[in-house]
Amino acid sequence: MAFEHIAVVGAGAWGTALASVIARAGRKVTLCPRDRAATDLIRQRRESPRLPGIRIDERIAIAPASADAAAHDTLRLAVPSQHMCEAARTIAPALVAGTPVIACAKGIERGTHRFMTEVIAENAPAALPAILSGPSFAEDVARGLPAAVTLAAGDEAIAAMLAQALGSAAFRPYHSTDVRGVEIGGAAKNVLAIAAGIVAGRGLGASAAAALVTRGFAELARFGRAFGARPETLTGLSGLGDLILTCSSAQSRNYSFGIGLGRGQAPQPGTKLAEGIFTAPALIEMAKERAVEMPIAGAVVDILAGHVSVDAATERLLTRPFRAEG
Fold first, then answer.
1. Which residues are catalytic?
2. Which end of the chain has fewer CB atoms at under 10 Å, N or C?
3. In the predicted model, what is the mean pLDDT of the chain?
4. pLDDT one-digit tens code per residue, 208-238
5. What does the radius of gyration of the chain's CA atoms come to, in whole angstroms?
6. Using CA atoms, how far apart are residues 19 and 51, in angstroms rounded to an integer?
7. Which is it for strands 147-153 and 127-133: parallel, antiparallel or unpaired?
8. Are 106 and 133 in contact (CB under 8 A)?
9. CB of 70 within 8 A of CB of 99?
10. How many Å separate Cα 193 from the centre of its chain?
């Protein structure tokens, strides 16, 4: 399995950045926007509207997302988590059994509580599902700045070969077989990044920000253990590493969204997608099913639902009973 010809379904910021990575790695790559109008626009401009100012490498072919994408050696589905089902169904009819299909979204499907590889498995049964996640901003990756991520698949040999197909001097994928652990880190950190943004937007200070990230990671780890994640995955790139990144930079959509909430701003129509908005309720519902305590994530859910104000949620967290750290 050389994985020489790779398709990326989804031509947003992250999909475009991944296509650039694959081209730099010397593989043939096709970038597949999800509709014909976007395909024509990107072909004409050689630029994604979601990643303005960064020219798409001429080595990258551009074709609309369709069942034809399944003819590639492997596929990356770089679409928002709530659209993963649709993307998987698009490529399913022509997919050869055992073709690796890598989810490049961080979230949990609303209603079903399915992780991204589960969504792929259900809607494209011939696929060999995998997950790519870690501390990486699309613009940095697209510009060729150094980044490291985790690529997980159930078969270690395939995970290693997929990582090799993506790897370059500036983009280092580490492979793993802990699919669930990688998915949990990516999903939970988006919710916690909203909380970190609220702290920043409210002007609660650097000490509060450090406490939030630390206690937030404790919540992520508790959730991960309850769902079978390995400790080394949770403290690795796709867990702690991604949490640190997204809780500290306005490049993070979730962090920026939280800053706005902290400042008392209503979300603006047309703003960039913050995956944590959709993941938060599912995360808490799943945590309750297994008696996992997640007060910070729970506060985010209540704020998003309008059940409490930012100040009331903050007071509730600060007045929790004193306890041993853990």
1. 189
2. C
3. 95
4. 999 999 999 999 999 999 999 999 999 999 9
5. 19
6. 12
7. antiparallel
8. yes
9. yes
10. 12
